[in-house]
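Structure first, sequence second, as always.
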């Protein structure tokens, strides 16, 4: 499996918001990453 095609800045933002190391973000399967992003967005909408 190849690493995700995202920029370093995006990886840093994701690792900070998901509390996951950057290395883990880069090797995470895309569908899992998208699910985590959707979950994070839902949390932000509920808080705001």
């Amino acid at each position: 499996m190849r690493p995700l095609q995202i920029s370093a800045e995006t990886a840093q933002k994701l690792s900070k918001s998901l509390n996951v190391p950057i290395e883990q973000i880069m090797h995470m399967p895309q569908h899992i990453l998208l699910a985590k992003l959707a979950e994070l967005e839902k949390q932000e909408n509920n808080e705001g």
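Margin note: The chain has a mean pLDDT of 86.
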